[in-house]
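Notes from the 1:1 (GR / supervisor)

We went over the backlog. Supervisor wanted to see one worked example end to end before approving the batch request, so GR pasted a single chain during the call. The sequence is below; no edits were made to it. Supervisor asked that the structure be written out right there so they could see what the output format looks like.
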Amino acid sequence: MTRSDNRGFHYGFIVVVCCCLMMGVNIGIAFSCAGIFYKPVSSSLGVSVGEFGLYMSIMYIASTLILPLGGRLIERYSARWLLSGSSALMGITLCGMGFCTSLWEFYVAGVLLGISVAFLLYLSFPTLINRWFSVKVGLLMGICSAASGVGGIIFNPIGAAVITNYGWRWAYIAFGLLVLLVNTPLLLLFLRDRPSDKGLLPFGSEKQGLSTKGNGKMTGNGIPVNKALKMPVFYGVLFFSFLMMAMSTLNLFIPNYVTSLDFTLEQGALAASAVMAGVMIGKLALGHINDRNCLAGVLVTTLGGISGLLLMIEGNWGLAAIVTGAFLFGWAYAGVTVQTAMLTRTVFGSLDYARIYSYMSMALAAGGALASGGWGLIVDATSYKFIFLCGICMLAVCTVIGVHALRIRKTAMI
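Structure output shown during the call:
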């Protein structure tokens, strides 16, 4: 029997802490710290940085392929065990990377990391926050998503220090042991699948008029996944997700763009830091904005990103304009995780959210896999300003898609 969520502390906030651990430790290490290994590992193996970095593209591709199955698994089986198992897989893989001696071994590691990332990044906090909370969903998603940046801030200098003093192999092993022996047991101990596991309703559910079915799953408004797959708006939001992720990978080229304008490397790094500041603040702000109005969230995300890219294109306006533009671009970057999740939830509801969002996550991973390498080829053939203009066009299309999807959602919901 479930009870109201207004009596004392709600266990959902422990689940939020678990989501922050997954994003801060697992994703913070796998994504935010990946760059510190590029030069030392490629030099050690005698390959180019580009050849080594391909393992990240392989990771994206593996995530893309596993996500449709992952969405079904996380609805049918225990999210607690799936996410803890994914964390263990990541820890073992990171430890194994410390023993790799050939490039192909890192590519295999990319596949294994991609499988774990499909659950830990794309399906974890969007699914669990949607299950455990009926209010402040956007803000909590923003907090969980922002934790990956906090993890990067904490673990990048630690990893760099280990690489400098002990070598890159020990850095991989240390990160792997942290994930395997600390984070994974914490997830297994404290994470729970649904509020009914603790005899609870989702936090705020009495305000939403939700109830539980006999299997403990919540019932509420939403579009069944089978119906969603037949709707044009589904493919519109899918394209929105793809474009948002593809646009966000422009971040990789901002430091080089700044130095190409005859600014120093330190000034290029300042612009990169401004992007990260925009991402951190943007994730929290967009979560709060989306709790009030998803349309406002879409507009802040896309128009802010357009403004930021325009400011950076006008490099002659000075470093202050570039840094301001980088900060605004960071808000659009933040929308990759926060805005796509909230747009999906707002348009399609909570009924089959996990399965529907797994398809959106597949589009996110595909966008990252294609664009992270594709932009470099386009830069070689054109210029940095050209790819920034492409990013502006992508955000303009996302604006149209987001506004249209939100306009028709009321007639689509059942």
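Supervisor's comment: Strands lie at 211-212, 218-219.
Batch request approved.
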